[in-house]
Specification:
228 residues, alpha/beta, Rossmann fold, DNA polymerase, domain 1, 2 domains, six-stranded parallel β-sheet
Length: 228
């Protein structure tokens, strides 16, 4: 018995999280921001993730929109660019993140082959709905699962169990795909087949488990699912 279900992390995996800062940097009058946007985008993403881990371990949960704002506020202050108009523009763009170029065709290939497809994300339901709609991939997804259902962020074990419960399957029937090495590692610990989409060619985190597969992008996911 092989894979029946392919599940994706959302931000950084299907959706390009750097796009908000990159697009804002191209707008007229943002020359000062354009000179700093890569560092700001990197700090924003790093703090967004760090705050999810800290809130999960300290039992002080909030939704993903709050940590997204908190991460941006940190990044803008670190860059000495605390501009309310810029802040609001970046947050607005975050609701309209584009999918990576290979995503639509990859999802269509999975659906054509008969796989269940879905998202498992720290994102709040309204954020995920906005991103899915903006990217135009809703028809290729069977489920969009948010941690807000259980009130704790990844990598808490109960998050990965949401997939088992929703699709009424065992973990060995799932291929889980994430751009976060730690996410793929803990999904593997849960029992999923896992892929780390390592777009930045980064070293693997030293954790109790590790993803079984690594790819530079999502193009090869349908072929891998068929081979497992």
């Amino acid at each position: 018995m092989g894979i029946t279900t392919v599940i994706f992390d959302a931000y950084g995996t299907l959706f390009d999280v750097a796009a908000a800062a990159r697009l804002a940097a191209k707008e007229p009058g943002r020359e000062a921001f354009a000179a700093k946007w890569p560092a700001i985008a990197a700090d924003w993403r790093a703090k967004q993730l760090q705050y999810t881990w800290l809130r999960a371990t300290s039992n002080t949960h909030c939704d993903f929109w709050q940590v997204t704002q908190d991460g941006l506020d940190y990044a803008l202050e670190a860059a000495n660019m605390q501009n309310p108009e810029l802040r609001e523009r970046l947050l607005a763009l975050y609701w309209e993140l584009p999918a990576f170029p290979e995503v639509p065709a990859m999802l269509e290939a999975l659906k054509s082959a008969g796989y269940n497809t879905g998202i498992l994300s720290n994102g709040s339901p309204d954020m995920l709905a906005g991103a899915v709609k903006s990217a135009g991939i809703g028809a290729a997804l069977d489920a969009v699962l948010s941690v807000e259902t259980i009130g704790v962020f990844k990598p808490h074990p109960t998050v990965y169990a949401m997939v088992d419960q929703y699709f009424s399957i065992t973990p060995d029937r799932v291929l889980f795909v994430s751009s976060n090495g730690w996410d793929a590692a803990y999904a593997a610990h849960h029992g999923f087949h896992t892929v780390w989409v390592n777009r930045g060619n980064e070293p693997m985190d030293r954790l109790p488990s590790a993803p079984q597969h690594s790819m530079a992008d999502l193009t090869g996911i349908p072929d891998l699912a068929a081979a497992l």
